[in-house]
Design brief:
Layout lengths: L5 E2 L2 E2 L7 E5 L4 E2 L2 E2 L1 H14 L3 E3 L12 H13 L7 E3 L5 H12 L5 E5 L8 H13 L4 E6 L1 H4 L5 H8 L4 E6 L4 H10 L5 E4 L5 H6 L4 E4 L6 H12 L3 H17 L7 H9 L16 H13 L5
Parallel strand pairs: 3-6, 3-12, 7-8, 8-9, 9-10, 10-11, 11-12
Antiparallel strand pairs: 1-2, 4-5
Length: 305
């Protein structure tokens, strides 16, 4: 999976992402990152057969982590990934800051960088293209585009994604626009070695049914086994098995977003005894009604609480 080939001095799309990758939460205790719990959560993911790991994304509350915390989290992820690809969040809304972030993270050897569309700035399509092109040219590691207009205020259109897919080390897109026509156009026209990944759990089955090859999942923090099974069923075209899992997991998919991510997922994981229910401001703990909803959700999935 990681054998490198060169073309024009650049590393080619040597890493093919597929299956289920978990957008990892960052556990806190007494206001500090709880690294011991983080390692236990990593080991739980590996034991469940997760296909790749995604630290320092939106679900990890990365904007509220300082540099030393981000570096330690990546270091631990690489140490405990058991050979799975590590796709680390490295994007900001400034090119210079993103390049600086990549330089900081590079020392721990991630396999790829998840780079979000620059938020707040509302760049044009040409601005996005130039930004991602400059990021890709700064490293020989893979770049995974992350389109989540609900968070960023700007949509990376299909034609721009496809232009970027021609850059040698732009290897995938995490598509969380919820725009099926747009995502379908990317799937239909993307190069063979470019991965389209669902950025929304509930869209895993329909997008993979039409050619996406996996998901970067929030729900797999809670139920990695079933999310792995769902992705694997789709990869082998076992629609019946995938449909059963999709319907089983639909309440979890929905309830993980009744408040801003990762508020509900942390509430669920606390109910399960996996971590403390602690977030950093401006995010705060889930309401009592959300906590009760997630308690019932994980109970119905068969977890002991």
């Amino acid at each position: 999976m990681k054998n490198q080939s060169q073309k024009g001095g650049k590393v080619m799309k040597n890493l093919k992402l597929s299956g289920c990758g978990t957008a990892l939460v960052t556990p806190f205790r007494n206001g500090n990152v709880d690294y011991d719990t983080y390692v236990r959560l990593l080991d739980r993911q590996v034991k469940a057969g997760i296909h790749f790991l995604v630290p320092l994304g939106t679900t990890g509350e990365t904007p509220c982590l300082d540099v030393s915390e981000r570096l330690r989290i990546l270091e631990l992820t690489v140490e405990h990934c058991a050979g799975r690809p590590v796709v680390v969040g490295g994007g900001t809304n400034s090119l210079s800051q993103t390049l600086g972030s990549i330089r900081e993270l590079e020392r721990f050897g991630p396999d790829a960088y998840l780079i979000v569309v620059p938020y707040y700035n509302k760049p044009t399509q040409q601005g996005m293209y130039e930004y991602f092109k400059a990021v890709a040219e700064s490293t020989d590691k893979g770049i995974v585009l992350y389109n989540v207009p609900g968070r960023t205020g700007a949509n990376l259109k299909a034609e721009t994604t496809l232009r970027l897919a021609e850059i040698p080390n732009v290897i995938a897109v995490k598509e969380a626009s919820g725009n099926y026509a747009q995502i379908s156009e990317i799937i239909r026209n993307a190069p063979e070695n470019f991965s389209v990944l669902s950025g929304n759990d509930e869209e895993t089955l329909p997008l993979m049914a039409t050619g996406a090859v996996g998901v970067i999942s929030v729900a797999s923090n809670i139920d990695p086994e079933d999310m792995v099974a769902l992705a694997e069923a789709m990869l082998r075209d076992d629609i019946a098995a995938a449909r059963t899992l999709h319907h089983k997991l639909t309440p979890l998919f929905r309830n993980c977003f009744v408040e801003s991510n990762p508020i509900p997922v942390k509430a669920a994981m606390a109910v399960m005894g996996l971590m403390e229910n602690s977030l950093r401001l401006p995010l705060c703990r889930a309401s009592e009604s959300t906590c009760e909803l997630l308690r019932q959700t994980v109970k119905e999935l068969g977890f002991n609480i």
